Amino acid sequence: MTNLIESEEHQALRKAVSALGKRYGRDYITRVIEEGRYPTELWQEAAKLGYLGVNLPEEYGGGGGGIAELSIVLEELGASGAPLLMLVVSPAICGTVIARFGTEEQKRTWLPGLADGTRTMAFGITEPDAGSNSHRITTTARRDGDDWLLTGRKVFISGVDHADAVLIVGRTEDARTGKLKPCLFIVPRDAEGFSRSPIDMELSAAEKQWELVLDDVRLPADALVGDEDAGLLQLFAGLNPERVMTAAFAIGMGRYAVAKALEYARERTVWKTPIGAHQAIAHPLAQAHIDLELARLMMQKAAILYDAGDDIGAGEAANMAKYAAGEACVRAVDQAVHTLGGNGLTREFGLASLIIGARVARIAPVSREMILNYISHQTLGLPKSY
To answer: β-strand 121-124 against 224-225: which pairing, if any?
Structure first.
């Protein structure tokens, strides 16, 4: 019956990635963060084993799988305490968009490197005033002969310092209507007029957050990914995988927190009884486990729909999965810390840092409120208030 939900191949992948993650673990990630560097060793080994490009086409060096497989990789790394945030960005968003809509030259240039980990790509959509609302993005691209000139600002862009390029969401003018529509451009890290500055975050993570400024960045015609008139279709080809992968990130984090709490609850003894025997401890942890499992089912549904080419169905399910996983993660981490009491805030047990990380799963890349807006409008057919 298990194979109805997850195939033997997926179960084998899950087991193999889990083994890799446990060889590194939370102590490795903590050390990397303290040293102010990138988890290069884990990234390179995951690449060598074929995990980074598991979703990319085989003819370009990938594994020929889909977002379902890549979400397993990220979830299991997270459950071991060693998640790789750039899995959400480089192969899932950028790799998927280029594989689906890129030219043959773009595919040959980028996909092999994204698959084997020798190249990475960041993704830039969020803006200071628009957030990730594609209808309010002010970064614009205008033609100048055969070239494009790109101008605008982006914020909270992950991993730009390690990326070879950024897939930037801009807007161009529709020649037929005069309205602006979203388009995607590959912007090399060293492009003239393209600058970055770090954002000072309370969140401790290996991947830094950046503000980008594009000041009339000149790009060749082939920097445009896909059809200039495709608009939201191409954008959501990247955003739906992003939501699925964010759910995987959150579920993995929540599983790690619950596992640490269970270990403590079995061993910590008060009045001659392990605290896990008491329902006040046991029941909330059981509820956290249930919530995470339910979120995973929705994530699996979203991934299957996306990989099957059902973009509309995947959009609904991906938003639901991201919402459910974010909520489940926050509750799981909170309950894990609460189970350990004061120990839950010590560096020794490694849970306190997850408190902030879990909140990110609620607000990024899209807030839970915007997901509720999406479901109320798109699924339930209720009118908009904005």
So the answer is: unpaired
pLDDT per residue as tens digits for the range 271-291: 899 999 999 999 999 999 999
What confidence tens digit (pLDDT) does each residue in 112-149 have?
Answer: 999 999 999 999 999 998 766 666 788 999 999 999 99
User: What's the one-letter identity of residue 63?
Assistant: G
Pull the structure tokens for residue 69: 């497989």
Residue 272 zone, left/alpha/beta (φ > 0; ψ -120 to 50; rest):
left
Yes or no: say if 318 and 243 are a contact pair by the CB < 8 Å rule. Answer: yes
Inter-residue contact 219 to 165 (CB < 8 Å): no
3-state helix, strand, coil in the chain (%, to 5): 55, 15, 25
d(CA 84, CA 81) in angstroms, rounded, equals 10
Spatial distance between the Cα atoms of 272 and 290, rounded to a whole number of angstroms: 29
Dihedral, CA atoms, 192, 164, 87, 370, nearest 10 degrees? 10
Residue with tokens 């503000």: 211
For the range 300-306, what are the long-range contacts, defined as Cβ-Cβ under 8 Å and sequence gap of 24 or more? Answer: 300/5, 300/6, 300/68, 300/71, 302/240, 302/243, 302/244, 302/247, 303/66, 303/67, 303/68, 303/71, 303/244, 304/68, 306/66, 306/67, 306/240, 306/241, 306/244
